[in-house]
């Protein structure tokens, strides 16, 4: 039995998904995570007997950060999350395989660049909710558009983590069947 060579890191046979497809997946991920965070926060409140929203806030934030880290690291070491599968997007390391746990964890930590800069600036300037939302959406748009400066149109946190997103139409999913986006 002959062993197949792993795809090279310089020329992936699968194309990078369009920015539109990746952002649609990102939005879907946010909708699903809202439910996960809601249930996890509720369980945390019950277990810690939290009676007020500001009580145990740092502990809740740390718990959610760790929970999301576990979720994404586990999913990415298996090539995708549910929204990625739906949008036919697969994550891979330089060898064309699912990233290692260390690489997936690095990607998780680097992916916070989508939210931390505007949230830090908003906190520093004490921006009200509407302005913070506008700042965050503006930053997300700019960060996403910066992928056009990458030679393979990858997000920069993927490049820094040594991962890449590829469009894999052979992957089961529902969105975009029969259409290119």
Automatic annotation (TrEMBL):
<dbReference type="Pfam" id="PF06271">
    <property type="entry name" value="RDD"/>
</dbReference>
<dbReference type="InterPro" id="IPR051791">
    <property type="entry name" value="Pra-immunoreactive"/>
</dbReference>
<keyword id="KW-0812">Transmembrane</keyword>
<protein>
    <submittedName>
        <fullName>RDD family protein</fullName>
    </submittedName>
</protein>
<feature type="transmembrane region" description="Helical">
    <location>
        <begin position="60"/>
        <end position="77"/>
    </location>
</feature>
<dbReference type="GO" id="GO:0005886">
    <property type="term" value="C:plasma membrane"/>
</dbReference>
<feature type="transmembrane region" description="Helical">
    <location>
        <begin position="108"/>
        <end position="126"/>
    </location>
</feature>
<feature type="transmembrane region" description="Helical">
    <location>
        <begin position="132"/>
        <end position="149"/>
    </location>
</feature>
<dbReference type="InterPro" id="IPR010432">
    <property type="entry name" value="RDD"/>
</dbReference>
<keyword id="KW-1133">Transmembrane helix</keyword>
<keyword id="KW-0472">Membrane</keyword>
<keyword id="KW-1003">Cell membrane</keyword>
<feature type="domain" description="RDD">
    <location>
        <begin position="16"/>
        <end position="162"/>
    </location>
</feature>
<feature type="transmembrane region" description="Helical">
    <location>
        <begin position="26"/>
        <end position="48"/>
    </location>
</feature>
């Amino acid at each position: 039995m002959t062993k197949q060579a792993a795809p090279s890191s310089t020329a992936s046979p699968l194309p990078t998904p369009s920015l539109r497809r990746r952002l649609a997946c990102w939005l879907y991920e946010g909708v699903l995570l809202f439910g996960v965070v809601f249930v996890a926060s509720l369980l945390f409140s019950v277990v810690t007997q939290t009676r007020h929203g500001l009580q145990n806030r740092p502990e809740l934030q740390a718990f959610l950060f760790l929970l999301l880290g576990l979720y994404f690291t586990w999913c990415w070491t298996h090539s995708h999350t549910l929204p990625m599968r739906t949008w036919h997007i697969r994550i891979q390391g330089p060898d064309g395989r699912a990233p290692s746990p260390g690489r997936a964890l690095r990607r998780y930590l680097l992916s916070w660049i989508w939210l931390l800069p505007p949230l830090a600036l908003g906190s520093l300037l004490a921006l009200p909710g509407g302005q913070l939302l506008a700042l965050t959406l503006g930053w997300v748009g700019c960060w996403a558009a910066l992928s056009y400066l990458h030679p393979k149109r990858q997000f920069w946190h993927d490049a820094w983590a040594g991962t890449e997103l590829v469009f894999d139409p052979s992957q089961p999913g529902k969105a975009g069947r029969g259409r290119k986006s």
